[in-house]
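User: Can you predict the 3D structure for this chain?
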Amino acid sequence: MVRKNQSSSSPSEAEEGELSDSPVEHIDGIKAQNYEKRRNFEEEERGRRGRKDSREGDDKLRHRRVENGKRRDTDREDQRRRSERDDSEEEERQDRRREEDRSTGRRKEEDGDVKDDRRDRSRRRNECDDGQDNGHRRRRDSNKHAYRDEDRDSDRKARRMDRERGRRRDDKDGYKDEDSDSDSDRKDRRRDRERGRRRDDIDGHRDRERGRRRDEREKDSRRRDDDREVEGRDRKKVDRNLTESEINNDSGKGNENPKVVVQKEENLGRSGGVYIPPYKLARMMKEVQDKSSVEYQRMSWDALRKSINGLVNKVNATNIKNIIPELFAENLIRGRGLFCRSCMKSQMASPGFTDVFAALVAVANTKFPEVGELLLRRIILQLQRAYKRNDKPQLLAAVKFIAHLVNQQVVHELIALELLTVLLENPTDDSVEVAVGFVTECGSMLQDLCPRGLHGIFERFRGILHEGEIDKRVQFLIEGLFALRKAKFQGYPAVRPELDLVEQEDQLTHEVSLSDEIDPEITLDIFKADPNFLENEKKYEELKKSILGEESDDEADSDGGSEDEDEDEDESDEEEEEKMQIKDETETNLVNLRRTIYLTIMSSVDFEEAGHKLLKIKLEPGQEMELCIMLLECCSQERTYLRYYGLLGQRFCMINKVHQENFEKCFVQQYSMIHRLETNKLRNVAKFFAHLLGTDALPWHVLSYIRLTEEDTTSSSRIFIKILFQELSEHLGIRLLNERLNDPTMQDSFESIFPKDNPKNTRFSINFFTSIGLGGITENLREYLKNMPRLIMQQQKPVSESDESGSASSDDSDSSESESSSSSKESESDSGSDDRRRKRRRR
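Assistant: Here is the predicted structure, written as structure tokens:
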């Protein structure tokens, strides 16, 4: 039964085993599937991330290429702008050089060069014969220049096209190679391309500059040739007219002197002929018998031109009163063109003397108004030309001349306002700068004559400043102009006192608009024969006598008494100068000196540098005290005492005894006002003087001013004495300080500090020094206080003896006095009794 049950139970157990094993295997399968899924998911994620990174890398690369392209374009644009700016600047420089060359050429031509005169004479001689050849030659030269210009332009275009093709090719190759090569290779290629481009740009710029300079030279040469041809034609016409008039005169006279015509033709030239020395010219003028002849007129014209040029070049603010009579002695009516041209040339050469030339013109304008009007027209014409050509130096000169003529009231103020309106209508850096200079020169006069118009101009300046479109430098100029207006144009007076030569009632003012058509009357600068030459000269002589005649007539009569009058005038001038002494009550110079000393002290690195700089300051007699005061003030203003000030004061005391005496005065002054100082300032001042005393820079007898008693000191003065002696003990030591204070030669100076006149004062001094820790320096004073009763007793003995002797002598004197008084009483009684007897007898 048992076996059957076991056998029968086995199949059931096997089934249970199979059932028990199958769940485990199922779980393992599920785990494996999950693992596979997770691994597949991770692989997909890695793939997705890789694709994303590759896309981002492509985007970054594409973005980098775009940025590089933009940067390359911006670099090219900046380089192009830079090259254009350089080209414009170079063109401006070339224009300035050309204008300078033209001005120098004009000066040489006006001064009269001998070589040019010879060439002109030879050209005039050969012009009739070689007229056709010259025409062919000029046409041939112009064709050559045209061919050269065309070839040069074609070469430039070809070079430019080659450079552009090379750049495009480099750009394409660079873009192809950038995809395949590494970053370092791309950078190297990019750097090489940039270097090549820069080299090409530099070469191209050099070629352009060389071509431009060559073109400018050729153009200048052509202009000179054209100007010379025109001048030659004009001279030829003038010479032809002159020769015809001379031939007619000679034919009318019978042709008696044919050599004169040849001599005249030889003397003809661009500026009046070949240079003739003054003595030779005067001799030739004397030799000419016919004063109305053309030859004599030409000689007088040359003499007039040289005289006017010499006077204008010689004038300045000191000798203008002497130049004016000499100028009126010349024929200004005939030479008004020469006078105006000479003034303009001299003013252009030296703009600093513009006010002097304006004063000279103002004086001439009072007698000859046509001179002032002609000069004004020519200056306005010069201004218009310079404004159109953008010639800044010439524009500045013309504007400055007009400004000073406005100050002299030769020119109306409306012209100044019109000029400022034109300059500020379309403001640029140069026009605003010119306007600022103009207002600076004549703003004081415009403020008096037309304040509303000047206010409108300043409002326009303010608008330009708010717009901010001009350069910073010009904005600063406008701000400076506003500050100058606020100061009422101080430093820029309308007319200097030495140049105020014309009364306001005598001055004639001219008004010419800038928009009017102006005739400069250039023919007045050229010699022309005058048929009424002698009559005009006589008229001007009479006019000159009316202007200068009184002075010339009185000169002969006043020669005898002029010396006495001069002496009297000199004495009176000296007396007036002694009486009139101007004193500056505002102390402006003193404030500026103190500021200079303060800045020098505070800006120096060490005391040696400060002393070297301060010694370089030029001090007037009596100002040495200011140096010591400022040094002490700077020391007292510090938070803590700096040894820098003590060393600096020591150096000055050692250098000069004057500074030592000044520091003694400062010590006395500071101690007398010590109660006014704060504790910090008091401490710094005490340490400063302690340093000077400890180094023997300051003598010790200054301590005699200190009186150490309870009645004569205050809390501030006791603190000062305490700090002073404590610093001395630290610097010298208590032993050396005691030796100094016990010096027998200095006891008179120390009696006030160690008083021995009263035991109370002596005890106060001993207690004071003991309380501050310096009782060691009072040993002698303590001994004196111990021995004081004995000394008093010794002093009282001779006093008592002297009192006894004095009493005895007083008794004797009293007895003698009593006797004398009794005798006098007796005599008086006797005299009184006699008087009574006489009265009785009379009765």
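The chain is about 80% helix and 0% strand. The radius of gyration is 54 Å.
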